[in-house]
């Protein structure tokens, strides 16, 4: 009985609340909302499209991005195109050989470069700004260098005889140099120097081979 006594008033209260619920007097029509969204979309296209085709304005006269690109192509179009072609060839060859660079390897090289730059009294950010590069640009360059280094690593080796000859030539140069403050080179340093030199030579050979075998069609002559 107690359950029935409390249950009935509660049910009636709920019904009363439902009856008193008011519907909103104003609802924004969906077609108007769609119209506003379309207008905003068109405005965005016009704004970004304007920036896509024009680089600046001088006293009301517009300067097109095409004119800027055309001027840049005259200055260094061939060099830029050759660089892009070379990067494409290297990436294609790396993919063919299933050679890749891990994030860990990339980060390690970035740390080395940043440490070296800091030791020279500047920052990596300042150097990149001076070169007109971003950190992403630098990372891409490092990745490319690591890819070609990996692809020629099996062709690079340093013998003990080569180390001896390198040290002998360095000692001879130091003895004839008036400045005697140059520190003596260790065998490990000599080995690394020879390795880097041989690596660069093999990279040049690889690049020349890739260019010789590639089918490159030029549609624009600079």
UniProtKB/TrEMBL annotation:
Q: Name one Pfam family in it.
A: SurA_N_3
Mind listing the UniProt keywords for this protein, alphabetically?
A: Membrane, Signal, Transmembrane, Transmembrane helix
Which Gene3D superfamilies has this protein been placed in? Porin chaperone SurA, peptide-binding domain
Query: Is Nucleus found in the keyword set?
Result: no
Biased amino acid composition, Polar residues: 169-184
Coiled coil segments of this chain: none
Q: Where is the composition biased (Basic and acidic residues)?
A: 185-197
User: Which residue ranges does UniProt annotate as crossing the membrane?
Assistant: 32-54
UniProt-annotated stretches for the region Disordered? 169-197
Per the record, the domain of life is Bacteria
Q: Cross-referenced SUPFAM superfamilies, in alphabetical order?
A: Triger factor/SurA peptide-binding domain-like
Name of this protein? Foldase protein PrsA
């Amino acid at each position: 009985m107690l359950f029935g006594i409390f249950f009935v008033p509660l049910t009636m209260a709920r019904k009363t609340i439902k009856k008193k619920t008011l519907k909103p007097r104003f609802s924004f029509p969906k077609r108007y909302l769609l119209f506003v969204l379309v207008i905003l979309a068109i405005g965005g296209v016009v704004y970004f499209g304007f920036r896509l085709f024009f680089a600046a304005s001088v006293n009301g006269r517009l300067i097109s991005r095409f004119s800027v690109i055309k001027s840049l192509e005259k200055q260094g179009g061939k060099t830029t195109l050759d660089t892009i072609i070379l990067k494409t060839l290297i990436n294609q060859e790396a993919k063919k050989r299933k050679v890749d660079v891990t994030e860990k390897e990339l980060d390690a090289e970035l740390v080395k470069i940043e440490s070296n730059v800091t030791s020279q009294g500047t920052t990596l950010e300042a150097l990149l700004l001076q070169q007109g590069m971003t950190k992403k640009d630098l990372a891409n360059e490092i990745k490319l260098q690591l890819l070609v280094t990996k692809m020629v690593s099996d062709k690079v080796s340093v013998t003990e005889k080569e180390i001896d000859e390198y040290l002998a030539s360095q000692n001879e140069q130091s003895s004839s140099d008036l400045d005697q403050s140059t520190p003596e080179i260790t065998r490990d340093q000599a080995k690394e120097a020879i390795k880097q030199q041989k690596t660069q030579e093999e990279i040049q050979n690889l690049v020349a081979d890739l260019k010789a075998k590639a089918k490159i069609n030029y549609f624009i002559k600079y």
